[in-house]
Design a protein that fits this description.
- A two-stranded antiparallel sheet has the order 1-2.
- It is built from four helices and two strands; from the N terminus they run H-H-H-E-E-H.
- With 90 residues, it is α+β, with helices and mostly antiparallel strands.
- Helix content is 46%, strand content 18%.
- The radius of gyration is 12 Å and the shape is globular.
C-alpha cells in the first residue's frame, strides 16, 4: 500500500496525534514545529495538506481552560489517528 502522506506530513501528524481532537486540544503551527522538529515553513504546508486529506482539522476562536483567547490551530482527526495506528504510532 502506498503511504497517503509524505514523511514531513507524517512527522506533523505525529505531533498533532499527541493532542487528539476528542480532547478538544489544538496546536498552533509553532507548537507543531516544536514537537515535530520540522521547519516552521514546512509545518504550515504539511499541516494544511493533512487537513485537505482529512487527517487534521482546523479550529478557530479557541479558548484556554482559564478562559483566555488562544486563537486558532489544528488537531488530529479520527482518520489521522487511524493512520498513525496503521504506521505503528499512537
Amino acid at each position: 500500500m502506498t503511504m497517503p502522506v509524505s514523511e514531513r506530513e507524517l512527522k506533523a501528524l505525529r505531533a498533532l496525534g499527541q493532542v487528539y481532537a476528542d480532547d478538544g486540544n489544538y496546536l498552533s503551527f509553532r507548537a507543531v514545529a516544536q514537537r515535530s522538529g520540522l521547519d516552521p515553513q514546512h509545518v504550515r504546508r504539511s499541516v494544511r495538506a493533512l487537513a485537505r486529506k482529512g487527517f487534521a482539522q482546523y479550529g478557530k476562536g479557541l479558548w484556554s481552560e482559564d478562559g483566555e483567547m488562544r486563537g486558532a490551530g489544528y488537531c488530529c482527526t479520527h482518520d489521522g489517528m487511524t493512520l498513525l495506528q496503521y504506521v505503528g504510532e499512537s
